[in-house]
Hints:
Elements: H1 7-28, H2 30-37, H3 43-77, E1 81-86, H4 88-99, E2 108-113, H5 118-149, H6 152-172, H7 180-187, H8 189-208
Helix pairs in contact: 1-3, 1-4, 3-5, 3-6, 5-6, 5-7, 6-8, 7-8
Amino acid sequence: xxxxxxxxxxxxxxxxxxxxxxxxxxxxxxxxxxxxxxxxxxxxxxxxxxxxxxxxxxxxxxxxxxxxxxxxxxxxxxxxxxxxxxxxxxxxxxxxxxxxxxxxxxxxxxxxxxxxxxxxxxxxxxxxxxxxxxxxxxxxxxxxxxxxxxxxxxxxxxxxxxxxxxxxxxxxxxxxxxxxxxxxxxxxxxxxxxxxxxxxxxxxxxxxx
Length: 209
């Protein structure tokens, strides 16, 4: 399997990653950012926002982009021509939503073409949420390890990474519109149910508790 990235694709991935970092920083640190936009501020505030940007890039940015790259890897495995394309209007909307205090992100998608079966299409769709589930385990280890070692930054990265990837996995398994869940359900309802119950259930649990 030969995974290649065009210049445009690399640019779109970079722009999407940075834009998501800005959007989630605006959401996480909305009050501080409003102070910054309102006029002169102490340098400490810039440090806080820089800290927030790093957190966002390492949690939300990685969660979203690895989700999309998982689609690409599996699509290429099945002989598809696949590339990520950023949706610049949606990225702009994500930043504006963050500034307004809302959370919204649709950075783009992996588009692929070629002959494919319903099973292969379902597995390509399932790859994204599966990566988010794997990232939950990775970030949970970072969270627990950071807290145990007394490294606050690692603990915070792990905590936010767990939440974001739980929500990403659950949201994308909803069987509606262009979401992955609909493609998986179209292929196999039992596979969708086995995947959706823990992922959507986990997302609901985070919202409730």
